[in-house]
Amino acid sequence: MSADTSTPDDRLRGFVREHTLGVAGAVSAVALAAVFATAGGLVPSGVLPRAPTGFVAAIPTLNAAVSLAAIATITVGVRAARRRDFDTHRRFMLASTALFAAFLVMYLYRIALVGTTDFGGPAVVERFVYFPLLGVHILLAVVCVPLVVYVLTLAATRPRADLLDTAHATVGRLAASLWVVSFALGVVVYALLYLVY
Predict the structure, then answer these.
(1) At the top level of CATH, which class does the domain 41-196 belong to?
(2) What's the whole-model pTM score?
(3) What are the sequence ranges of the domains in the chain?
(4) Helix, strand, coil: what percent of the chain each, to 5?
(5) pLDDT tens digits along 126-169
(6) In 10 A of CB 170, how many CB atoms?
């Protein structure tokens, strides 16, 4: 009988590889619970460190810039995959994920500290333009979390050649498309809130 020479990292990777969907679902559920808890005011602002007021006020503009950067990195990453330049694809999709994480952390931090921003435009624009755009933006962002986590989990636990036998490409295309639309709508929402009205 031979001794098990696998490392704890190998065993964890093997477990995640065997249970990719379940692990991605659990990670997504925890992430979305944290998002909804923070957005719902369940995280007391007193437990968070206080950033300078200027930084907190600049978060919406920073997040609009992050969103534009993410649209660019997702687009470059998708084009790289189509050219079968998987090293570039991987770098840009990881950059997109980091940008999404940065966006989310800053957004939730600001929400926890100061709450949401009221729409300052006419009620008719709020009802028929702003709220529908905001709703679709939020819905797509929520839908993207499990899709992106699943695709990343597949990529992290399999050699590149094995990814061709998974749903990575199919789910990745859907996730990338929805992600770009969500980020673009976020920029439109920012413009309505902070530039137009």
Answers:
(1) mainly alpha
(2) 0.89
(3) 41-196
(4) 80, 0, 20
(5) 999 999 999 999 999 999 999 999 999 999 999 988 998 999 99
(6) 10
